[in-house]
Write a structure and sequence with these properties.
Layout lengths: L1 E10 L7 E11 L4 E5 L6 H9 L6 E6 L2 E5 L4 E2 L7 E4 L11 H10 L7 H14 L15 H13 L5 E5 L7 H18 L2 E6 L2 H7 L2 E6 L2 E6 L1 H6 L4 H6 L4 E11 L4 E6 L2 E5 L10 E6 L4 E4 L11 E11 L4 E7 L2 E7 L10 E6 L5 E4 L4 H6 L1
Parallel strand pairs: 3-9, 3-10, 7-8, 8-9
Antiparallel strand pairs: 1-2, 1-4, 4-5, 5-6, 10-11, 12-13, 12-15, 13-14, 15-21, 16-20, 17-18, 17-20, 18-19
Bound molecules: adenosine-5'-triphosphate and magnesium ion.
């Protein structure tokens, strides 16, 4: 298990104030869990990971791994990186040339203090090479590997030390799309088979959704939401998360009231009054922003069946894009443009009227935030 509490890390700069790269970061990754730090470039993911590894010295906070405090500002503890027993793979992994695959993987064991004998090393190395599917290439020159194989070798090198916790910083970023997808499966399999607590860093939301048990979304040094991939996608806590993960429709509105029977809120919006869901209690009159995923904007040419007469609206097809397995429709409802992801069997032509229905449980009310334009002007 890895537990991080109140972690702050800053970088001094030549002139001007220090950069607050990690701000009050806190999370817990239980044993065997694949935990991902996700966020846009510069949000503090690498800083957080390096602080956990001991490669950056935080200004305050506490880091505990499997019951052992490796950093605590309050207790004055700072365990150096090589004593933490964490494995780390960097974005720019380095394969040592002029060495075989075996020698690359064995290197961390060769240089460590209490050295094992030759056959112990061979046993451990072949075990990790087997785990990453490179055992048959053990004698090959490491530079004569494909990108994906080199990636797996970097992983093997981190695994050979039998780390308590695996720290991975965008380890798939310099692979092509196909290989990246394949490596995702491999990585997940290895992680599961070895039961390794893994902290994974990526700015790729698809990768985070595909790999993780838990995701912490970061923005400007802070964690803004922690949850399962499904929770993060279906119940984003704020506009930033809804916008960063996947595609969504935002509709501004005002809370009219609460419906006790359905536990839903009624919200007035430019496309009509809608029943919506909210995790946080909402006061009547409060401004909100609704987030509705394109696949939850249902389109039909027929009238809705009688038992489904809620959250109905209608609009005009403004544009559509055929993507093979889906068709993206842009539908104009008054002044609002809605994006809908529909089945290709729907063939309504541009310019025609179309009916819209939205499941109240898929209309998520978020606290309204000041408009971007207003922020920029301030
Ligand atoms: N050595 C450094 N000195 C000063 N500022 C730094 C240093 N390293 C990072 N920063 C700043 O700290 C902030 C967080 O950087 P960090 O590398 O943690 O971001 P990141 O989320 O990993 O981004 P990316 O996805 O681009 O790798 C950024 O504003 C960055 O400019
Ligand atoms: Mg980074």
């Amino acid at each position: 298990m890895l537990s991080v509490k109140g972690l702050n890390t800053e970088y001094k700069t030549q002139k001007g104030p220090a950069v607050q790269a990690a701000r009050n970061v806190a999370f817990e990754a239980p044993k065997g869990v694949f935990f991902t730090l996700l966020g846009p470039s510069g949000c503090g993911k690498t800083t957080t990971l390096r602080s956990i590894a001991g490669l950056e010295r935080p200004t305050s906070g506490e880091i505990e791994a499997n019951g052992r405090v490796v950093y605590s500002s309050a207790q004055g503890v700072f365990v150096p990186p090589n004593k933490r027993n964490f494995g780390m793979v960097f974005q720019s992994y380095a394969i040592w040339p002029h060495m075989t695959v075996f020698a690359n993987a064995a290197f961390p064991l060769e240089v460590r203090k209490n050295r094992l004998n030759k056959s112990q090393i061979a046993e451990k190395v072949m075990k990790v090479l087997h785990a990453v599917g490179l055992d048959h290439l053990a004698e090959r020159d490491a530079t004569r590997l494909s990108g994906g194989q080199q990636q797996r070798l970097a992983l093997a090198r981190a695994l050979v030390m039998e780390p308590e916790i695996l720290l991975l910083d965008e380890p798939l970023s310099n692979l092509d799309a196909k290989l990246r997808e394949k490596m995702r499966f491999e990585l997940k399999r290895i992680q599961r088979e070895l039961g390794l607590t893994t902290i994974y860093v990526t700015h790729d939301q698809g990768e985070a959704l595909a790999l993780s048990h838990e995701i912490a979304v970061m923005s400007e040094g802070r964690i803004v939401q922690i949850g399962s991939p499904r929770t993060i996608y279906e119940r984003p806590a704020n506009r930033f998360v809804a916008d960063f993960i996947g595609t969504t429709n935002f509709i501004d509105g005002t809370v009219l009231g609460h419906d006790d029977a359905t536990k839903l809120y009624r919200v007035r919006t430019p496309i009509g009054d809608l029943l919506v869901t909210s995790d946080a209690p909402l006061a009547g009159g409060a401004p909100v922003t609704l987030s509705i995923r394109p696949e939850d904007v249902e389109l039909t040419e027929d009238a809705a069946p009688e038992d489904r007469l809620i959250n109905l609206s209608s609009g005009m097809v403004d544009a559509k894009v055929f993507l093979g397995d889906i068709v993206d429709f842009q539908v104009k409802v008054g002044d609002v443009m809605l994006l809908s992801r529909a089945h290709p069997s729907l063939r309504t032509p541009v310019g025609d009227k179309i009916n819209i229905r939205m499941d109240p449980l898929k209309c998520v009310a978020l606290p309204a935030e000041p408009a971007v334009a207003a922020q920029a002007a301030a």
